[in-house]
Amino acid sequence: MQVEDILRTKGTGVVTIGPEASAQELAQLLHQRHIGAAVVTDGQELLGVAAERDIVHAVAKLGVEALELPVTEIMSPAVVCEPRDPITDVMVAMTHRRVRHVPVLDEHGQMIGIVSLGDVVKHRLEEIETEASVLRDYITILR
To answer: pTM for the full model?
Structure first.
């Protein structure tokens, strides 16, 4: 299964936030949209990913004043993938880089979607369930 299979199911919408937005504005956006991260962009340029955990780390380190910082000061560098990347490769990248949201870029470097750890796990579980079902059917036929 590939990243494009996830995008086909979940869609290609990506919530973005500008680099001048504050961490407070980010927190409000994430809360309003019921999401865990927003991609920080300046026009078409992808600058990074600002997630709930970035807010938590900033507040733990600097206190409530961290909420006044621009998102560019608290965001994480983006780990990106391409539509044809295998989901297992994305899982490995997420684990090694300790990220939960990965923007998807097309062959021209344009952002065409985002996948979250939840998306990847959901699709991997569906894939495993399908494999188990096929094996159960195969065993039933052999009896």
So the answer is: 0.84
